[in-house]
Amino acid sequence: MQENTVLIDFVNQWAEDEFWAGHLLTKKIYEYGPDLEENIAIGSISQDEIGHCRMLLSLHTTGEKQIDHLIYGKPPEQIKVSRLAEYWYEYDWARLVMKQLIYDICDGVRLSFGGEIPDSGLQDVLRLMKREEAVHLEHWMEWALLISEDSQGQSLLQKAAGQIYPLISDFFADPLIERVSAEYGLNSVSAKSLLKQCLDELNPRLIQLGLSIPCPEQEMIGNLSVQGGRYGLHSSGFMPLYNEFTLVYRQNPDMVWG
After folding, report:
1. CB of 125 closer than 8 Å to CB of 56
2. Taking the chain, what is the end-to-end CA distance rounded to the nearest angstrom?
3. Is the pLDDT score of 28 beyond 90?
4. Fewest beta carbons within 10 Å, which of 30, 52, 122, 198?
5. 139: Cβ contacts below 8 Å, ≥ 6 apart
6. Rounded to 5°, angle at Cα 157 from 155 and 161
7. Which residues contact 251 (CB under 8 A, 6 or more apart)?
């Protein structure tokens, strides 16, 4: 991987998604869970996601200092995290569950795509990630089913889905998908095909929860042409979070922990 800049860029972008998804889970962990046991579960899931970030970056870096720079040292316009991963909200348990459910399904599709890339180091990392992400997805689906048991819960989930579902297009609106596909001869894979694969998996789950599909497929496909997170163009809530996450590093980038 060391000399393949296309794959390195793709892996860096993937790592940014995992970092933001994991870090946001830890941001207000004391408020999220309906009980202590769930707070502990969220902490474990967030550690998994941040661990995935570091494992991905370790494939082409030489140490913790370089990894820290890639996570904390980039200016905002160079961060290519998806708007789905960076999506933030005040306390709302149903919205948290819906975001993580949708993110994990998107990530599962990306894992399947990554599994076709013939790089042995990457495949070692993805095998571990796949096992852990399957557990995460099961966790969030169980919570969604529990919330959907009454009409009030369904209403909360439907509102959350309406806000988060359109961000799936931004997740896959990624020029690196086609570049990686071309690099490795995966000619049948495109942003459109991955988006359709994601919707084919997600939509039956939403129906199982008693929810309606927020956006038609053709609208989602059309939105793949909109430049967003993968182009360094972020949501309005990005900068306060970025400033908070990077504060210590910006004050002392040469700090060595431990």
Report:
1. yes
2. 29
3. no
4. 30
5. 41, 45
6. 120
7. none
